Amino acid sequence: MYKISHNMLGLNPKVTTLSGDVAEDERIWGGGADFGFGHTSPMDMPPLGQVAKSHFDGVVTNVSVFLDDIQIFDNGVVCHPDLKPYTLNLLKN
After folding, report:
1. CA geometry: angle at 4 spanning 61 and 79, to 5°?
2. pLDDT tens digits for 25-55?
3. Which of 25, 63, 67, 83 is the one with CA 20 to 30 A from 34?
4. What phi and psi, each to the nearest 5 degrees, are found at residue 38?
5. Sign of dihedral through CA atoms 72, 24, 40, 5?
6. Torsion-angle region of 69 (φ positive above 0: left; ψ -120 to 50: alpha; else: beta)
7. Integer Cα distance of 93 and 72 in angstroms
8. Which is nearest to 37 in space by CA: 18, 16, 22?
9. Are 63 and 71 in contact (CB under 8 A)?
């Protein structure tokens, strides 16, 4: 139950507010992060999966993200100068 099942950054520009639906909230744009713990199916973690009695996700918003000491998000906002133009294009569509 206490094993990490998955983690991810939310980068879906169509999801900008929390809805209460974890399957949608884990994809929230703007520095959202999701951490899943517990059971993982064999389809998602071949060949046997990860057996546990349950599974839960925790969604965190407005995170700051660094990759190899380079900051990408600052409190939920894309701050890397090379990525800002892409961000603006994604959000206006």
Report:
1. 30
2. 999 987 789 999 999 999 999 999 999 999 9
3. 83
4. 105, -145
5. positive
6. left
7. 21
8. 22
9. no
Taking CA atoms, 20 is separated from 24, 57, 78, in Å, by 8, 12, 24
So what's the pLDDT on residue 35? 95
Q: Could you give the dihedral angle defined by the CA atoms of residues 16, 58, 5 and 62, in that order, rounded to the nearest 10 degrees?
A: 50
pTM over 0.85: no
Q: What is the pLDDT of residue 78?
A: 92
Burial label, 5 (beta-carbon count in 10 A; 0-12, 13-18, 19+): buried
Best CA proximity match to 11, nearest among 71, 69, 82, 83: 83
pLDDT of 60 reads: 94
List Cα–Cα distances, 76 to 52, 55, 68, in angstroms: 32, 26, 18
DSSP 8-class letter at 26? T
